[in-house]
Amino acid sequence: MPTKGLIMIHTGAGKGKTTAALGTAFRALGYGWKILVVQFIKGSWHYGELDSAKKFGDQFQILPMGEGFTWDTKNPERDRQKAQEAWEFGVKEALTGNYQMIIFDEINYVIRYNYLEVAKVVAFLTTKPPALHVFLTGRDADEQLIEIADLVTEMREIKHPFKKGIKAQKGIEF
Ligand code: ATP
Ligand code: MG
């Protein structure tokens, strides 16, 4: 049976959306797959996974596309431009057929804040290479994306150390 490339969404307010996608990538890397991660949001800290990915060489590429694009934006027009570029880059790479999996990290957030049109994402997902697996992560996933996805998981916060005033820690949060 040919591979059925899945459309997978991790959404919700609880922790684990990005890391569960990276965990799946880690599993797939064991089979020699090539994987691309397009990060739409660049946090103010350095993420450990950027260095982990380097250990896999060409097999695992993580591209933080939103250069200067942070959670607390000061220049929405520039952020919009960066989001469009990140999206177009991801699509172009997807169509090369070089990758078995693509993770669009925090894409739900950029769609929610109108930095990227959901119609573009729907158009890609409905015409993508059939064997390509795609992850879309981030809070507030768009209904249209949920509709066409094969897998949708909502991370629900029951407890988070942040609420107790425990700051983000290396290896867990970044
Ligand atoms: P992770 O990358 O740890 O899997 P995530 O992708 O689910 O988290 P994001 O919405 O991308 O979460 O949040 C980015 C950062 O905020 C991460 O460092 C994450 O640990 C932290 N975070 C996630 N959920 C919560 C929460 N409910 N309260 C406070 N901080 C959170
Ligand atoms: Mg995340």
TrEMBL record:
EC number from the UniProt entry: 2.5.1.17
Coiled coil: none
One Pfam family cited in the UniProt record for this chain: CobA_CobO_BtuR
Keywords: Transferase
Pathway: Cofactor biosynthesis; adenosylcobalamin biosynthesis; adenosylcobalamin from cob(II)yrinate a,c-diamide: step 2/7
Enzyme kind, highest EC tier: transferase
Reaction catalysis annotation: 2 cob(II)alamin + reduced [electron-transfer flavoprotein] + 2 ATP = 2 adenosylcob(III)alamin + 2 triphosphate + oxidized [electron-transfer flavoprotein] + 3 H(+); 2 cob(II)yrinate a,c diamide + reduced [electron-transfer flavoprotein] + 2 ATP = 2 adenosylcob(III)yrinate a,c-diamide + 2 triphosphate + oxidized [electron-transfer flavoprotein] + 3 H(+)
UniProt function note: Required for both de novo synthesis of the corrin ring for the assimilation of exogenous corrinoids. Participates in the adenosylation of a variety of incomplete and complete corrinoids.
UniProt record similarity statement: Belongs to the Cob(I)alamin adenosyltransferase family.
Record-given protein name: corrinoid adenosyltransferase
Organism for this UniProt entry: Candidatus Manganitrophus noduliformans
